Amino acid sequence: MFQTVEELIKHPVFHFFKEISNIPRESGNEKKISDYLAGFAQERDLEIVQDEALNVIIKKPASKGYENAPAVILQGHMDMVCELNKGTVHDFEKDPIELRIDEDMLHANETTLGADNGIAVAYALALLDADNIAHPALEVVITTEEETTMGGAIAVDPSHFTGKIFINLDTEEEGKLLVSSAGGIKGQLSFPISWNAAPETAETYRLSIGGLRGGHSGMEIDKERGNANKLLGRILYDISNEFTYTLSEINGGLKSNAIPREAEAVLVVELQTTEKLEKKIDEWNQVLKNELRAADRGVYVKLEKAGPAEKVFSKETTEWIVQAIMLTPNGIQSMSMDIEGLVESSTNLGVITTTGSEVSFQNEIRSSVRSLKEQILNQVKVIAKTLGGKVEMKGDYPEWAYNPDSAIRELCKKVYQDKYGKEAEIIAIHAGIECGIFTEKMPGLDAISIGPDMYDVHTPNEHLSIPSTIRTWEYLLAVLEEMNTISVHLK
User: If we measure between CA atoms, which residue out of 398, 430, 391 comes closest to residue 185?
Assistant: First the structure.
């Protein structure tokens, strides 16, 4: 289909995807991409709002014949999760994402691709740039920090919009119309470290876990993939039942909303226990390879000698940290009784970090039922209270409830049937999506989410189907062309 990136970027969508791939856009570092979007609008004399949160709103008048069609709000987010394979040299603050084609898939070179949600930005820019596409009035809003706190969407001023039809472009499966999603909150659990001098007659080892697939903590939570942080906790607890050790450091995972692929701890052990430790790690390699033979067959546990530690956690701190990892809930907590196969509630122990004064755990908590989200958070609070830690909450966002009277859903179903001769699948997902925030702050908003096929998002193996991206672009244009066939009553 397309043999080279140079050939691919002749398509308008991929032209703009390549453009934004050259600009840093990690969550929290969106100033350059936000300014690029604002400049894009100014160059084309389009109405532009760039707010204090760096969200960008661009408005384009209806094309001829669509002046009376209901305005459409198109929405995506500009930020991306930045992860790379171990040993890869890449600076996400300045280096462009290197694109490559493998058969009909678009990949990055050893890093996340940023199709989540750069493809929404590319669709929007291609629409705003074109002068030969039939469409109603467009109100494009590209938000910041979706992957971390959803702070951009939370900060959007709804008075900027007149539209009541809302099309989000952050879905990862073609042919599926997303109509409901989970709400979520981040709970950071922190424990103070009591430090001691490292014993003189001891060995220091680095214990690491890797080879896991990881993935999106909402979309892949039902795949039963290994969580490196939780697995490390199991091993450390098992070791503590055999002999005494202390920790001098423990770290794992990079993002709270990504299932951690790697984790490591630095252990200080007495000389006479080193053989037992090596034997125990050999045993755990076999245990995990057996447990995860289907979900994570590449899993490994590795033990290496490390340079001598100057200081270590106290015995009590070491015990509390290991106990906290063991007690912290992780994975699926409940399944929906309304929609078969849908995860209702979950939590992901995504990040463990050691600083000079504390060890912190970052938990991504999700549920389509608000009270169950609060229940999981309460479990984390009880762990903190029991073990002498503290909890900080941030990034609370609402669930997106199903709308039984959605006009845009019915239109999207009709267009899909007419275009492809088959029915689109109506789905709900166990992941956070900004529709919930917009529908809560804009009563009467009629929302739907669509997108092309993409795989392994939030990992360096993230890849995007090129044919699916083009088909979804053509489908989006067909939906916009049909917008003058529906009416929306403003509420």
Answer: 398
Q: Does the pLDDT of residue 410 top 50, yes or no?
A: yes
CATH number for region 195-345: 3.30.70.360
Catalytic pick among 26, 30, 146, 453: 146
For tokens 């894009």, name the residue: 40
Give the span between the Cα atoms of 200 and 204, in whole angstroms. Answer: 11
Rounded Cα distance, 102 and 485, in Å: 40
Cα angle for residues 202, 205, 206 (degrees, 5° grid): 155
Write out the two tokens for 486.
Answer: 């529906």
**Residue 440: active-site member:** no
E strand intervals along 193-262: 195-197, 202-210, 215-216, 245-252, 258-259
Is the per-residue pLDDT at 490 higher than 70? no
Q: What is the bridge-based pairing of β-strands 263-270 and 202-210?
A: antiparallel
Q: What is the pLDDT of residue 216?
A: 87
Q: pLDDT for 376-385, tens place per residue?
A: 999 999 999 9
Any catalytic annotation for residue 146? yes
d(CA 114, CA 272) in angstroms, rounded, equals 49
Query: Is beta strand 72-77 parallel, antiparallel or unpaired with respect to 138-143?
Result: parallel
Classify 52 as helix, strand or coil.
coil
Residue 491 predicted with pLDDT over 60: no
Q: What angle do CA 448, 450, 451 make, to 5 degrees?
A: 160
Instruction: Name the pLDDT band for 488 (thresholds 50, 70, 90).
Output: low
CA distance 388 to 81: 32
* pLDDT at res. 390: 96
The CATH architecture of the domain made up of 5-170+433-485 is 3-Layer(aba) Sandwich (3.40)
Write down the pTM of the prediction: 0.75
Matching residue, tokens 């989540």: 116
CA distance 434 to 183: 9
How do 176-192 and 358-367 pair as beta strands? antiparallel
Q: Is 5-170+433-485's fold the same as 195-345's?
A: no
Nearest in space to 128 (alpha carbons), one of 140, 110, 118: 140
> Which of 26, 30, 79, 296 is labelled catalytic?
79
